[in-house]
């Protein structure tokens, strides 16, 4: 695509190796892969996939910037919600998925320490050795006195109590893509086309997708995604959560908005060097591939295994409830950092920035029903799910 920066020679060579591996998988599968299988390989193929190859992803020099990297105010406000739950869960821990650069972990630990309730352990599930190094460095810089409380996991714990945080995790889980046609449903597949790859339609891989799409009652020609992988992940986490809170923060919608008639081409989007585009087959391994989150489906997945839906709000409302405006007001306007922090707060809160696009979903287990979560004290939208 002409408006995108051109990758360097080494990056293109890495992408070519991954493309060869994907084409081999297509051949082994009989000529086509479900889009979810392609997305899984493009993002997570060992050593080559986008999240596994060691290339820089986060921050202004990467492909996208997450809320914790935009401003320390995000973590400082979030700490109020985490502290509330930890105070109700003896020996509770914090478990963060997809910790990225470590910015959220470092600032959250610092603020929890300031509040007088650092967790017994702060666990990070991270498979990338390169990202683990960056996370260790961030912890060492910001909270060296708490470094001994931090540990890294390679898989989900069997049991957990405390607060689980997944910030911009669900959007990168492989989705299945579909199209409604006269007489039924087709699924999107990836196949080879000469030396490249292309998207084709075919019968659904199973009845699960067809049944879900039929239940949505969408018009002919409608294209979109279903994220069964994310639903299964949420279910598993809720089953293993003994007592505490699962907090899902991501861009997305309630189901009625997700499958709105105006959103008839779906929500899939790719990110490369701060540029967004729609070609998921371009440069596999070099670009992020994401889809918005259907928060209704995530809530249903958690509640189906016994979790309680405890809150759903915009990111802006959640952060306001957690005291972000007061955190900013407490800074002296004469402080050289004040203006930057004020601009960062606008990015986190304004509807046209991150404030409305991002939502926060809370699922709990074993918490007293009367202990309402402070992050949802006002503007709770559970009724929209």
TrEMBL record:
GO terms for biological process: methylation. One of its GO terms (molecular function) is protein-arginine omega-N symmetric methyltransferase activity. It comes from the Bacteria. Transmembrane segments: none annotated. Gene3D superfamilies: 3.40.50.12710. InterPro entries: NDUFAF7 (IPR003788), NDUFAF7_sf (IPR038375), SAM-dependent_MTases_sf (IPR029063). Keywords: Methyltransferase, Transferase. This is SAM-dependent methyltransferase. The lineage of its organism: Bacteria, Pseudomonadati, Pseudomonadota, Gammaproteobacteria, Immundisolibacterales.
């Amino acid at each position: 695509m002409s408006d995108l920066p051109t990758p360097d020679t080494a990056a293109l060579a890495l992408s070519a190796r991954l493309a060869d591996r994907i084409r081999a998988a297509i051949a082994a599968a009989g000529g086509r892969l479900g889009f979810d299988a392609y997305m899984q390989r493009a993002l997570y193929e060992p050593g080559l996939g986008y999240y596994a190859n060691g290339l820089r992803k986060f921050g202004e020099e990467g492909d996208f910037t997450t809320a914790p990297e935009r401003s320390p105010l995000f973590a400082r406000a979030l700490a109020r919600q985490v502290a509330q739950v930890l105070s109700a869960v003896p020996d509770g821990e914090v478990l963060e998925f997809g910790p990225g650069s470590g910015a959220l972990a470092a600032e959250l630990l610092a603020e929890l320490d300031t509040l007088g309730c650092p967790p017994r352990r702060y666990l990070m599930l991270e498979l990338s050795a390169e990202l683990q190094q960056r996370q260790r460095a961030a912890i060492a810089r910001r909270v060296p006195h708490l470094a001994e409380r931090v540990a890294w996991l390679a898989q989900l714990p069997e049991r957990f109590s405390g607060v689980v945080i997944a910030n911009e995790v669900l959007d990168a889980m492989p989705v299945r893509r579909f199209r409604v046609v006269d007489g039924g449903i087709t699924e999107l597949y990836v196949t080879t086309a000469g030396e490249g790859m292309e998207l084709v339609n075919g019968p659904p891989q199973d009845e699960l997708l067809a049944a879900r799409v039929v239940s949505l009652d969408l018009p002919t020609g409608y294209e979109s995604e279903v994220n069964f992988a994310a639903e299964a992940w949420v279910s598993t986490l809720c089953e293993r959560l003994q007592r505490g809170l699962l907090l899902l923060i991501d861009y997305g919608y309630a189901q009625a908005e997700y499958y709105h008639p105006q959103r008839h081409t779906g929500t899939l989007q790719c990110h490369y060097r701060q540029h967004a585009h729609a070609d998921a087959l371009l440069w596999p391994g070099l670009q992020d591939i994401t889809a918005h989150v259907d928060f209704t489906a995530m809530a249903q997945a958690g509640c189906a295994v016994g979790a309680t839906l405890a809150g759903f709000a915009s990111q802006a409302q959640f952060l306001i409830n957690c005291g972000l405006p007061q955190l900013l007001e407490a800074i002296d306007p004469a402080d050289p950092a004040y203006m930057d922090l004020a601009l960062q707060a606008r990015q986190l809160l304004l509807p046209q920035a991150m404030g409305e696009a991002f939502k926060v979903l809370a699922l709990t287990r074993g918490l007293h029903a009367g202990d309402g979560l402070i992050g949802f004290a006002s503007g709770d939208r559970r009724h929209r799910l």
